Amino acid sequence: MVPADADESQMNAIVSLEIPMPAKLKNLNLVIEINGGEKQQFKTFYSNQLKITTLESYGELKVAHATTGKALPKVYVKVFGLHKSTGKEFFFRDGYTDIRGKIEYAQTSGDKLKNVKRFAILVVSDQYGSKILECDPPKTESD
What we know:
Blueprint: H1 8-13, E1 30-36, E2 39-45, E3 50-55, E4 60-65, E5 76-83, E6 89-96, E7 102-104, E8 116-125, E9 129-135
Antiparallel strand pairs: 1-2, 3-4, 4-7, 5-6, 5-8, 8-9
């Protein structure tokens, strides 16, 4: 603990503080609150064993186990888009990875893709955790 009346040299001597994580919180997604002085920050930590590879030019992603590299089928993927003209977020599509661990996240019926400025993608595996990533939509002929 830093004394309230600590001078600058005492403050500079403190570089980091490691706090052990309780066993019941391991392998869970967390929002960590950090308070110091008059500052407050929130950091999101996604505990997962996922390796996610995106191929933006085709609107495809592949999910594999981070250690073994084995493709993970039946992983849930939920995709949101940021609308080009309005700047509002909207549901784009969802689905599951196939036997190869792949899903075409930009595939949809109609012409919704032409309105997407950017994607936010939630990837959820009951066994291996979850992750959120962002990527650009594939280029279309009109781009």
